[in-house]
Design brief:
heterodimer; A: alpha/beta; DNA polymerase, domain 1; Rossmann fold; disordered C terminus; B: about 325 residues; 8-stranded mixed sheet; 13 helices; disordered N terminus
Amino acid sequence: MEVSVLPIASAHKEKLISAGYTTLLSIIGVSASRLAQELIIPHREAVEIIKVTLKCSRAVGLEGTHAVLKGSRTAWEMLSDEQNLKLIRTGSEDFDGILGGGIHCGQVTEMGGVPGIGKTQLGIQLAVNVQIPVSYGGLGAKAIYIDTEGSFMPERAYQIAQACIMDTWENLGFSRKEIEDCQEKMQPDHFLANILYFRICSYTEQIAVINYLDKFLEEHKDVKIVIIDSISFHFRQDFKEMVQRTIVLNEMSRQLMKLAERFAVAVLLLNHVTAKHTEGSFQLTLALGDTWSHSCTNRVILYWDGNDRHARIEKSPYLPSASAPFSVTGKGIRNAIAHCKRLRMM
Amino acid sequence: MSLPHSLEEELPTVNDSFLRFGASHGILSAEKALVHVPSVIDASTKDEADLGVSPKGASRTLSNFESKCLRWMNGVELLDDALRNKRFLPTGCEGIDTLLGGGLREGQLTEIVGPSSSGKTQFCLYVASNVAVKLCGSIVFLDTSNSFSPTRIASIVNQICGPAVKEGQERRIKNIMSSIHCQSVFDIFSLQDALHELDNTLNMQTIREGTKICMLVVDSVSSLITPILGSKSSQGRSLMVSVGYLMKQLADEWNLSVLVTNHMVSGGGTSKPALGESWKCIPHVRLQLSRCPGSSICNVSVLKHTSMACNRSVDFEIPN
């Protein structure tokens, strides 16, 4: 829609075009005072121009005229967007079930649990699963793995990738021969090549990397998941001043949310547990304190129930709180099998 | 108030010569005019060649100007205005509505405090949906922590509308959901920008045929403010208070009901609302939410209210 169709004085049209306002949308987006300043016309006339533009654009039903604020979207528009967003499956259908189908792109999800519950396994599994080609029901994207503890095991990742490939084919009901044909296309090596790995040794590095991600994701648009394993490691020991820590953590979570929303990537934060003293009893909660607990969109607690691993939705704006069992097998994260017992190392 | 240009329409005496007079003395805003023009007039009585404006004319304009700017109302008018323009927006949760005498008041700022996962966001989403359905008003939702969930809104709207009518249901839900506007803000400055922009939009609303904006939700305001607090300088605190007043001004001027959420911090064994004492005076109404882990029943208690007794509490449930 061009400016030339507007029923306004031709002098104004000329000024608009020479100032760079060529489409109706560009005029709607600007405030009257700014327009007056740029075109060097009285404020009243600028208001008049915007009024006329709004009327015109509504007449032709132009998109964007409903926006109350620049960049705001209505719930309806967002709903259809959200329905188109892809989900990254965890490998266990039960786990996916309580997550509403898998990890959501565009959101920050925090998962935490006691040591040995399988946080890192889950991280590696998701880094692999995000790469399943679109034709096989995945996202065909890359993963960023930010490792603060040095617990990422490439051998394990290779194993999980192999198992993931086999399972994908089996689920599709491929015969032996077909699998051999496909083997060219999907190889564990490719899966490992698409995990972009950062090793972090201090909290300053961690902040630097997270700030750098903005630029990095701009260049690597095919990344769909960012895994931070773990978010809390360096923050639990290096800080004396708690107030300072809260401020830094808050800033970091804001940055991560911005990334998630802007690039529609899933952000997975793995966290440790800590004992919290409330009303005379100790309870296990995720580390980093109360203020931090507000800063992620979804929160999932991984815990032992007897000998089974369970996951529980602790906090989510849209998921009902529920729990489901899962297990960590040689192949990676899978559904819990009734007889799967925890191996106790004596 | 904006540049004196905007006054021209309302006040015939504020004409070009007055503006020129002002501009020649560097007076460009209405507030400045009120403060500076008298002294300038005194000074320029000796200097008659002042752009052809007689000081008398200027001072007459000024007195008109003052009477227009400094409006006053008496109590009866105020009460009348409150009864007419400041509606109660029903929250949809029966317990809370009776607790607050009808719901969230327009023109007031209501704050919800509560620990993580106590149902603050759920409450915001629920109220927003309920107002959109029952009053057909528009809602502006400023989301600071990616927690606005259109899926959840859809399911709440579905629930409130009920399964009564099948035909046209889809279109109705679309209309309702289109009246909820969401924007993500990730720092305090973009919040300020958004609030100023909202002011502009409301100014222009007269020329739009759309539904009236009756509610503004900021979920959560504390996650934007905590990063700027805590340092030694008081700059963060003054920024916080100015944002608070901006929201209250919007609420009062345009009869919006403003709903913000705040989290809790633990200090000395007990937990209390974050943001400290200087924020405490900003909200008109402060409600505290709490929820036992695992149960779906929330408890809400009144910590502060401008016209009702405090420390009353009630249980309510947000249906799944």
